[in-house]
Specification:
This protein is of the alpha/beta class. The chain contains 15 helices and 8 strands. Strand 4, helix 5 and strand 5 form a beta-alpha-beta unit.
Length: 358
């Protein structure tokens, strides 16, 4: 057997989590550049600055990441003097902002720290960037050897973020359990992969228990226990699972029908701009279960989706059968289906979509 190491990112969570910035970040230098979304940086700026006051950590600049996570956006950031001078990168915001910072980090060989300001995906703790083209269509997956050095999750900031991000995060997160468990079906698993597969169940169970209340608390701007547990499932559990089940990238169990469905639909003009990733992926899980001949489980998930307002029919995401048929060939070729216990065909996708049309 080969020797190997498993590294998952540590995290600090709570309304005062940023106070730990000097303790963890000063290990990697003194100069940081903050890169993120405009709204995200506005939400986090005061707390970040307060946390580093009277410490050795200095912020050189606050920079907008751009509109999409693209290679072009990363290259533009890499030419900015503050980015070149910085010892480390503070990635602030949602998935596209954090993923862009990852591209900069790997190109410039600078460590990065993640500051998710919304609970919509696991970008802050995963070792993957999802790269898009300038027009918003899907471009590439970029895998990394390491993830963030530390993840800082301020629950007050997340509680005051728009509720639709948490809503989408729920769909994206429970998908991890269904996709991983199917992709790993029948496999002989090493310890770390088995741990990731078993941990993936928490991606579903935690949100079934806390998700509905977390959405209510998010609407009220309340940094509650339910919100914290849901945010941790979305941001941390999913990211750890992602890394454990795809450590060497030669046998990746992360993928599945739900994500292939979303990326395939991104071939429709403007689709990515008009639809939240996790909401579409959440519906994609229903499609996955139909294809996997688990109609009873599909009905149970439909019942849960109704409690949190996630889509239960194709009509709920504003897509027609004809559009699914148009994109189905691309779905079957998606990287998410490269390791699957059986071949998924365009006809299987179309027939499942017809059963879930309305």
């Amino acid at each position: 057997m080969e020797n190997y190491s498993i590294i998952v990112p540590p995290y600090t969570v709570g309304p005062d989590s940023y106070k730990k910035i000097p303790e963890y970040c000063s290990l990697y230098g003194t100069k940081a550049v903050v890169i993120g979304g405009k709204k995200a940086m506005n939400a986090a700026r005061e707390k970040i600055c307060a946390a580093i006051k009277d410490s050795t950590v200095e912020i050189l600049d606050f920079l907008w990441f751009g509109k999409e996570c693209t290679y072009e956006a990363a290259k533009s950031l890499e030419e900015i003097p503050a980015v070149k001078e910085a010892d480390m990168i503070f990635a602030v915001g949602g998935g596209k902002a954090v993923d862009t910072c990852k591209l900069v980090s790997i190109d410039l060989k600078k460590p990065y720290f993640a500051f998710p300001t919304i609970a919509s995906n696991c970008a802050a703790s995963s070792a993957l960037s999802i790269v898009y083209n300038e027009d918003g269509s899907f471009c590439d997956f970029v895998h990394f050897l390491e993830s963030a050095k530390h993840v800082f999750i301020d629950t007050e900031i997340i509680a005051n973020a728009p509720v639709e991000y948490l809503w989408a995060g729920i769909g994206d997160t429970y998908a991890k359990y269904y996709e991983v468990s199917i992709s790993a079906r029948g496999e002989k698993l090493e310890h770390y992969k088995a741990m990731g597969v078993h941990m993936s169940k928490m991606c579903m169970e935690t949100l079934m228990e806390h998700g509905a209340q977390a959405l209510k608390d998010n609407e009220a701007g309340k940094a509650s226990y339910d919100l914290e547990q849901s945010a941790l499932a979305i941001i941390i559990t999913t990211g750890w699972v992602s890394m454990l089940v795809a450590r060497d990238h030669t046998m990746d169990y992360n993928g599945g029908v739900a994500h292939a469905f979303f990326y395939g639909l991104c071939n429709l003009p403007g689709f990515d701009e008009d639809h939240l990733h996790g909401v579409v992926v959440g519906f994609g899980v229903l499609l996955l279960l139909m294809i996997d001949h688990r109609e009873e489980e599909c009905r149970k998930l439909i019942a849960f989706n109704k409690t949190v307002g996630l889509p239960t029919s194709l009509a709920d995401i504003g897509v027609t059968i004809e559009q699914v048929a148009q994109c189905a060939p691309a779905m079957t070729k998606d990287e998410d289906l490269e390791h699957y216990p059986y071949q998924v065909t365009a006809d299987m996708i179309i027939e499942a979509a017809k059963k879930l049309a309305v």
